[in-house]
Design a protein that fits this description.
Layout (H helix, E strand, L loop, with lengths): L4 H4 L1 E3 L4 E3 L3 E4 L3 H12 L4 E4 L2 H10 L1 E5 L5 E3 L5 E3 L19 E4 L6 H10 L7 E4 L6 H8 L4 E6 L4 E5 L2 E4 L5 E4 L7 H7 L4 E4 L3 H11 L1 H8 L3 H5 L2 H20 L12 H8 L3 H7 L13 H8 L9 H10 L5 H15 L9 H9 L3
Parallel strand pairs: 3-4, 3-8, 4-7, 5-12, 8-9, 9-10, 13-14
Antiparallel strand pairs: 1-2, 5-6, 10-13, 11-12
Bound molecules: NADP nicotinamide-adenine-dinucleotide phosphate.
């Protein structure tokens, strides 16, 4: 019987990299298309599972991945494998159905984790298939694992900003290395990701990094409710103080709960908070690098507002509130932020319009 190379895993003779098999991108959006695009451009057999909103432009224009460091890479529309429902698995070689993936990248938003994991289970992937959740928050891997106990779900983290620029172009705006909770099954993928120019660090415990990233992601609701670009938001003292207020409370909760959190930015979180609180004229001098942001960039929650989609607020401020409740402590500012975001989405979403000072007062006066 002749096996196609992707079905048995294959050895790329040019670069001496063994590719364990095909990759599925479960939730082709900003993260999925960027990671999948880099892998596909380096020769990995990648299957993108997503919605027509994202897949149609790929069908028309192909997929382009770009970043601030490397030349653009393009994959033609004809070379892309795009699915609006999970591909049928086929143990035989009829050339129509797909072989089982050796790796699934789970890249849906937190609100889609349960459904996506249930779909992976229903697809009948072989027991032990490796799934890496490249999602924000601290609980998505566990949530997916509970829905798909036969799969091996590991947590991952994307430290950089990725944007869908339209016409099939996905752009990485900032630097950093992907992180994955280490597991022997993932080891062969390290060289594959390296070759795809996706720097990746395997760590024995990802949780502190996930909490460290969550602290920074507390900016998502501030940005979304302000209705401003990230650059406008960080140039506004009141809005920076909103983020500082949420982070400060979250750090208190983490410390009271003895939950470790790691530094994921150039500055430790406590120092970052102090910088956020500096008045504008000093902040602009001290934080020049922080202000080197794409002038059009907004948080992904702002995109959720604009598209009327559910937000990830429960995986961000909501996690802080849950942890505080477990310890019998309050987290009024993060709880207030959960309420404000939910009120906004209940009222039909659209761009946020909170005046900066009013938003700060709403957080600081929350009890
Ligand atoms: N974008 C960033 O810069 C960035 C950076 C670091 C981490 N993250 C995190 O990475 C995760 C993904 O973010 P993202 O920005 O890539 O989100 P995204 O652009 O919304 O991509 C996810 C895509 O998956 C689709 N989807 C949802 N459920 C699906 C299903 N069952 N089957 C097929 N497709 C499905 C979504 O469609 P619908 O819109 O219809 O649901 C959406 O098109 C989030 O946890 C986010 O916080 C994002």
């Amino acid at each position: 019987m002749v096996m196609r190379r992707a079905e048995i895993g294959y050895h790329d003779r040019m670069s001496m990299v063994d590719i364990p098999g095909p990759v599925w991108i479960m939730g082709a959006g900003s993260v999925g298309c960027y990671l999948g695009g880099c892998l596909a451009a380096s020769g990995v057999d990648v299957n993108f599972i997503g919605r027509p909103r994202v897949l149609n432009p790929l069908r028309e224009h192909g997929l382009t991945v770009s970043d601030f460091k490397h030349p653009k890479q393009q994959i033609s529309a004809a070379a892309l494998k795009l699915y609006e429902a999970l591909p049928q698995l086929n143990p035989s070689t009829d050339g129509v159905s797909q072989p089982a993936p050796a790796l699934v990248l789970l890249t849906v938003k937190g609100s889609g984790t349960v459904e996506a994991a249930q779909q992976l289970t229903a697809a009948g992937l072989p027991a032990g298939t490796l799934v890496v959740s490249f999602q924000n928050g601290v609980g998505n891997a566990e949530l997916a694992q509970a829905q798909a106990p036969e799969l091996r779900v590991m947590a991952g983290m994307v430290p950089y900003n990725l944007a869908d620029l339209g016409q099939g172009v996905f752009h990485r705006g900032t630097s950093g290395a992907l992180m994955v909770q280490d597991h022997p099954q993932f080891a062969p993928w390290q060289a594959v990701f390296d070759r795809a120019q996706l720097s990746l660090r395997r760590v024995p415990d990802l949780k502190p990094f996930q909490w460290g990233k969550l602290l920074i992601n507390l900016n998502n609701p501030v940005n979304a409710l302000s209705g401003l670009t990230l650059l406008e938001e960080f140039s506004n003292w009141h809005l920076r103080r909103c983020l500082a207020a949420l982070m400060e409370e979250a750090i208190q909760v983490l410390q009271q709960s003895q939950v470790p959190y790691a530094q994921v930015l150039a500055l430790p979180p406590e120092k970052f908070i102090r910088v956020l609180r500096l008045p504008n004229f000093i902040f602009k001098r001290v934080a020049k690098k922080m202000l080197q942001i794409d002038p059009l960039a907004r948080s992904s929650m702002a995109d959720d507002f604009a598209l009327g989609r559910p937000t990830e607020i429960d995986s961000l401020c909501g996690e802080v509130v849950r942890l505080a409740q477990q310890q019998g402590h309050p987290a009024p500012r993060n709880a207030a932020m959960v309420r404000l975001v939910k009120d906004h989405t209940r009222q039909g979403a659209g761009p946020g319009q909170w005046p900066a000072k009013a938003l700060l007062n709403a957080l600081l006066q929350a009890t």
